[in-house]
Amino acid sequence: MPFGREPSSIPQPGPLSSNPATATLARMKQDIREVLIGRGAIADRIRALADQIAADLAGLGDNAEITIIPILTGSFIFVADLIRELPLKMQIRLISVSSYPGMSTTSKGARLSEQLNQLPTSLTGRHVLIVDDILDSGQTLRLVTDVIQRLEPASVRTCVLLRKQRPEIKHFPVNYVCFDIPDEFVVGFGLDYNDYYRNLPDIVALRSEVLETETVS
Asked: CA–CA separation, 8 vs 29, rounded Å?
């Protein structure tokens, strides 16, 4: 589904409040260049996507259940909203993958984290849904899917909040996509820059001066 731009302009913050929390939020809003997808559009699309997933899994029978594997950290808000719309019996197994360390705005290669990995030793007979925040190079989904397949599940489906419009992933296999977006760095709704901005309720692009130049190694 193409991304939608909401017609309302970005609210301009007034003078910074003496309340630290309000002042912090105002500074965050000042960093936004553009709202690409508003919170209302996100909520509507997640409900529609959950209906689609439920319909696809309806053929598994009344006692069907799935194992949802969110890829942390970026997908945690997305998956929290998604599972509350899914009328299915489910288990949650977390896995953490790092691909955008620190202030990087381009993928540095996907690596599994051993510190946060709740995968069982076997997924035999289980129907698995892998959930990620963004598909931009395919490295993370490819890595996690390969790991899951070795645990012998009955089926594996993949779901992403965002898919960047890049030629190299145009035909990358993914079952469910909330939004296609331009090839630019975005934050909000769980996505971060240097571990900040995850709590923004919209998906936004930051002003260029906010994004520090990456050091070429």
From this structure: 14
